[in-house]
Amino acid sequence: MSTSSERIPGGAFGKGSAASQTLAAASNSDHESSDNEAPRRLRDSKKNKKAQKNHIPPEIKQKASKYSRGHDSEATPVKARSKKAQAKLDHAKKRRDEAILEAARSEVLLTEQAGYLEADKMERTYKFTQKQLAEHVDISSANKIFDLRLEDFGPYMLDYTSNGKQLLIGGRKGHLATMDWRNGKLGCEIHLRETIRDVCWLHNQNMFAVAQKQYAYIYDHTGAEVHCLQKHKEPTRLGFLPYHFLLASTGMTGRLVYQDITEGKVIGEHKPGYGPAHVLQVNPFNAVVHMGHGNGVVTLWSPQQSTPLAKILCHKGPVQAMAIDHTGTYMATSGLDGRVKIWDIRNFKAMHEYTTLKPAHSLDISQRGLLAAGWGPNMTIWKDALSTNVTDPYMKRQLPGSTISDVQFVPYDDVLGYGHSLGISSIVVPGAGEPNFDAFVANPFQTRKQRQEAEVKMLLDKLAPDTIQLDPNFIGKLDPRNHLQRHHDKLQDTRSQYDQNKAEGKYKDSNVKNKTKGRNSTAKRYNRKRQSNVMDLKKLQDIEKLERELREKEAKRRKIPQEQQGALSKFYMEKH
To answer: What are the φ/ψ torsions at residue 28 (nearest 5 degrees)?
Structure first.
């Protein structure tokens, strides 16, 4: 017996079955979920990368605070009128914030650290000799300890370039030389056969200035004379402003002269009136020139102002030497009274002082805050002498039979060079120089092409002389008042001051006699025209008299009745 069964279309799991529909729906949902999962993962990965990029560790935020410049944009938001201008402002703010963060993150690359001499409990650091230090330092550092004997042409003045690579020396009897002091290579050497009082590098190692007996001269790196600056008469000290390309000098005439070395123009010439000056220093922070005088006063000068910015009475006797740290905060001065004083330039107050057996004739402050003083045949170095009053020196040095004339720390190196009557010498001072340098500011390993590019950039970024002021962060403000408003406010202030002085009885003679003789002479007319806006006692009394007469005249005027007014009465309301 055969049985026949009906065949279901599509088999047991055909297309029309519920099971097949369930499997198809599941597969479609899997495909859809897989298609949606990939973009979601991509979006999540982008969000995570963006969050990681925007995440700033707290230590980076703390370091970024010292790299910020100007006002905080979030505290003073700037809103533009158009969307395009607002987008530019937002983009500039974003780039500025990124630059600050990159500068803070780059501190990781600054691996070098400053080190100092450390002594045991029973030892003192100033008892360590250079011979002992040479045995415990590397070969390159030991080679920096040398004595160059030049007994016939001393005493010597010296100067280092901003990157500390080149050395310029000048002997009082006319010996002049430049050298790469680390490698022992001589640049140029000439004998001027004339008195040399000071030497100074200019913007780079290709040019330098020399204060000679009669004038100041500029030479190139080969020793050839380039310029004779006849406005600098009998100079004794030179100073160079690198960001303004100005050469400042003072001398036996007592004048302070500024000259632009790019154009050759004399920018400013001031006469303090204190006699010959032998001390001059340039503040590296704000480019203000400090001058020391024979009466113990230190004056601060700007090339565009005929009067000093400030006057400080530093010593009871003549000022012998001066030094300013690279931050422009502290100033060290030495006087003939044998005292070395530390001053806070922000408030012009003396913080503390040190005493030397003889007056210090040369001072210098290192990049790390060490203070060196040369007095007689001795040289003393203090550590942390600017912020605190230390009792014991950090290091000492003595040259019997000589007199130290100039001391200078080498930038970005733990070396101190000093000139004396027997030549020049160099010693190692641990912890003196900044261990990490900025190649865009001063590169000790600068090549010839880099030096040429840096010179062009410096000329393009040259600052105007009128930007020199005590506070370089202050730019200026605009007065919204017009000329008439300012004149009116000035008259109001003068009148109020006059009324106050009159009430206090400061003006005893209130009746000023009018002198009519020679009233219309040429000199009288010139003075009246010249002092037309000058308010004095007589003019104020004349103004009061005129106002009183006007009030009396106003009271005598007769009012016109309403019935007598005509069609033109709106043009005149009163009549005599």
So the answer is: -65, -40
Is the distance from CB of 167 to CB of 157 less than 8 angstroms? no
Q: How far apart are CA 548 and CA 509, in angstroms?
A: 20
Q: How far is it, in rounded angstroms, from Cα 119 to Cα 115?
A: 13
The 10 Å CB-count burial string (b at 16+, else e) for 463-479 is eebeebbbeeeeeeeee
Give the number of other CB atoms < 10 A from CB of residue 111.
Answer: 8
pLDDT value for 109: 67
CA-only gyration radius of the chain, Å? 39
- Joined together, the tokens standing for residue 233 give 């008469």
**Could you give the CA distance from residue 256 to residue 238 in angstroms, rounded to a whole number?**
10
Query: DSSP string spanning 155-210?
Result: SEEEEE-TTS-EEEEEETTSEEEEEETTTTEEEEEEE-SS-EEEEEE-SSTTEEEE
Give the mean model confidence (pLDDT) for residues 370-394.
91
Residues with Cβ within 8 Å of 311's Cβ and at least 6 positions away in sequence, in order, are 297, 298, 299, 300
275 Ramachandran zone, left/alpha/beta (phi>0; psi -120 to 50)? left
Closest to 281 in 3D by CA, of 338, 229, 343, 213: 343
**C-alpha to C-alpha distance for 431 and 125, rounded to whole angstroms:** 13
At 131, the amino acid letter reads: K
* 376 burial via Cβ count (<10 Å: 0-12, 13-18, 19+): middle
Q: In sequence order, what are the residues at sequence separation of 6 or more whose Cβ sits closer than 8 angstroms to the Cβ of residue 33? A: none
Which tokens go with 163? 């990157």
CB 250 within 8 A of CB 280: yes
pLDDT at 111: 63
Least confident of 143-152, 172-181, 261-270, 516-525: 516-525
Find out whether 314 and 299 touch, Cβ atoms under 8 Å: no
Closest by alpha carbon to 393, among 412, 374, 415? Answer: 374
Q: Indicate yes or no: pTM above 0.85.
A: no
Locus of tokens 């479609």: 28
CB atoms within 10 A of CB 43: 10
Residue reference for tokens 């709106």: 570
Tell me how far apart the terminal alpha carbons of the chain are, to the nearest angstrom.
151
Per the CB < 8 A criterion, the answer to whether 419 and 196 are in contact is no
- DSSP for 77-130 reads ----SSHHHHHHHHHHHHHHHHHHHHHHHGGGG-----------TT--GGG--H
**pLDDT band at 498, cuts 50/70/90?**
confident
> Which stretch of DSSP H or E encloses residue 354?
strand 349-355
What are all long-range contacts of 175-183, with beta carbons under 8 Å and residues at least 24 apart?
Answer: 175/150, 176/210, 176/219, 176/223, 178/205, 178/208, 178/221, 178/223, 181/417, 181/426, 182/143, 182/144
From CA 307, how far away is CA 300, in angstroms rounded? Answer: 9
**Cβ-contact 157, 196 below 8 angstroms:** yes
What distance in Å separates the CA atoms of residue 371 and residue 429, rounded to the nearest whole number?
Answer: 11
Find out whether the peptide bond into 155 is cis, omega within 30 degrees of 0.
Answer: yes
